[in-house]
Design brief:
This protein has 12 helices and 14 strands. Strands 1, 2, 3, 4, 6, 8, 10, 13 and 14 form a 9-stranded mixed beta sheet that branches. The chain has a 3-stranded parallel beta sheet with strand order 5-7-9. The chain is elongated and about 70 Å long. The protein has helices spanning 2-13, 28-34, 52-58, 63-72, 106-118, 128-131, 155-165, 178-182, 239-262, 267-270, 276-288, 297-305; strands at 79-80, 84-85, 94-103, 137-142, 151-153, 169-172, 174-175, 189-191, 193-194, 202-207, 211-213, 216-218, 223-227, 230-234. By secondary structure, it is α/β, with parallel strands linked by helices. β13 (223-227) and β14 form a beta hairpin.
């Protein structure tokens, strides 16, 4: 709690070890500290840069399978449900750009906006996170669940977000202009509700900082995946493992359904540790279904040996 208070003070005033960072961002070193398990490429500000190829694979995995992998790794606070969607047929998948909003007070908002002008920032603070978006990013905002006066975007900002990121948003807050947002082909927003009001009494306190979305913790660069039931935030360093295991679980389920329908194996056999006979049948099934994900027998043995799902 003490560190959180110091972090918030630094974000507001620009003092201490965060003083050289622009706007309400934390320093590159601090961001690397929070995401130190990530060993791959990073953006200039220190945010983990999950490869585009992994993001494409993530678009095809199920949220339940991914959640199971995270739970088995001890990450129990990464899912949040209870959303309303702009378009429930469009998943939002990509790297998190985080924003933390708080209720405004005149002195703080004036200082933040004055500093923003000196840094060349334009418009209200809710537009500043949009300026840093790149392709593949997902704008994730902690709007402390505010509905009336908590409309972080309308169709104008929605179009700007989509043009920069090619992606949607996750807002613990609200949005306006629902019909206009629905007209943005390929765009989706997970929000708490929709409201006709304008944004008021809110100010950006953190940009690419750790945030909370409901019962989930989100770090900049986390892999965001979503389905109708909710949103999962996958730590960047676990993205490849979660995707690989989720792909296998999906593959196993397809094979299991096919075998059960055909009566080849009993339910008890399929739901237990697989015998060599089932494994051999699985590999032959893969040969007969070349469009499915390919894995080796060694990979299969490794998955089944460590099976905890």
């Amino acid at each position: 709690m003490k560190y959180y208070k110091l972090l918030t003070l630094a974000l507001i005033t620009g003092i201490g070890s965060f003083g050289s960072a622009k706007a309400q961002t934390i320093s590159r070193d601090e961001l690397i500290f929070y995401t130190s398990e990530w060993k791959g490429e990073r953006f200039a500000d220190g945010r983990p840069k999950i490869p585009d190829a992994l993001i494409e694979r993530a678009k095809k995995i199920g949220i339940e399978e991914a959640w199971t992998v995270l739970k088995n790794e001890g990450y129990n606070n990464q899912f949040e449900g209870g959303w309303k969607l702009v378009n429930d047929t469009v998943p939002v998948v990509g790297r998190a750009v985080t924003a933390m909003f708080m209720p405004s007070r005149p002195d703080i908002e004036k200082n933040i906006k004055d500093r923003g002008v000196k840094q060349g920032r334009k418009g209200n603070t809710n537009s500043w996170p949009i300026d840093v978006l790149t392709k593949g990013d997902v704008y994730v905002a902690d709007g402390f669940g505010k509905i009336r006066g908590g409309t972080l975007i309308g169709d104008n900002l929605g179009n700007s977000i989509f043009s920069k990121s090619g992606n949607g948003v996750i807002f613990d807050g609200s949005a306006r202009d629902l019909s206009g947002l629905r007209d943005i082909k390929g765009f989706n927003a997970f929000v708490r509700d929709f409201d006709p009001s304008y944004l008021e009494e809110m100010v950006l306190m953190g940009l690419n900082t750790p945030i909370r979305i409901g019962r989930a913790v989100v770090l900049p660069g986390d892999l965001v995946i979503s389905e109708k039931e909710g949103v999962l935030f996958i730590p960047a360093h676990l993205a490849e493992k979660v995707i690989a295991v989720a792909e296998f679980i999906d593959l196993r389920d397809k094979f299991s359904h096919a075998m059960l329908k055909a009566g080849t194996f009993a339910t008890g056999e399929i739901d237990s540790q697989w015998t060599d006979k089932i494994k051999d049948t699985f590999m032959k099934w893969l040969d007969q279904n070349p469009n499915e994900v390919r894995i080796t027998r060694a990979q299969l043995d490794a998955f089944m040996e460590k099976r905890t799902w």
